[in-house]
Design goal:
With 192 residues, the chain is an alpha/beta fold. 31% of the residues lie in helices and 15% in strands.
């Protein structure tokens, strides 16, 4: 079904204010429907609005009903609501086959559970692939929709995150994950 609200194949973006700073959804029409090609999180070094102007200067501020629904769900998610996103709204085909496998495994980790990069690698049949899993998640084009904040290091420290380690920790705490005084995860709810 063709989307009648969006009349552009050019990259577009919509921006939402969140408790973590602006979040940008970069999207375009693909196969006659709006699909997200990237979600940008603000960091202490650069707001998502600045990032989109650098990464995709030809894009313009536009939205449509489908993208507005996803953006509203992201806002609700970042306010602590339990939202399960659909992968139908993202362009997974822009990722390598390996990254798609990692992202799909990460997507399956439910709210309130975590995994280590090594646990995901073992689940994917690559027991020595923790670093490759970490790299695939570090370049996840769809943070929040694919909740890569739910993967931590084997030593139970949070590890890296596109929105910064404090955002990652806060998201995990909002989902019921507990931390000890040394900053290590104390929760035993490992999915993989």
């Amino acid at each position: 079904m063709k989307n009648r609200d969006a009349h552009t194949a050019q990259p577009s973006f919509c921006i939402r204010s969140t408790p973590f700073g602006p979040v940008v959804l970069l999207w375009s029409i693909f196969d006659d429907r709006p699909r997200i090609s990237r979600i940008l999180l603000s960091t202490p070094a650069a707001s998502a609005g600045h990032q989109v102007s650098v990464l995709c200067p030809e894009s313009g501020v536009r939205s449509c009903s489908e993208i507005n629904i996803v953006a509203a769900d992201i806002e609700r998610f970042l306010h602590g609501e339990d939202i399960r996103f659909s992968l139908e709204v993202v362009r997974m085909e822009i990722c390598s086959e390996f990254q798609q496998r990692v992202l799909r495994a990460e997507y399956e980790i439910p709210r309130g559970s975590i995994s280590s990069y090594q646990g995901i690698a073992r689940h994917l049949g690559s027991p020595n692939g923790a670093r490759a899993v970490g790299n695939a998640l570090a370049t996840n084009p769809f943070p929040l929709i694919i909740p890569c904040h739910r993967a931590i290091r084997s030593d139970r420290l949070v590890g890296g995150y596109q929105g910064g380690p404090q955002m990652k920790r806060t998201l995990l705490e909002m989902e019921g994950i507990r931390f000890g005084p040394t900053g290590r995860v104390t929760t035993k709810n490992f999915f993989y």
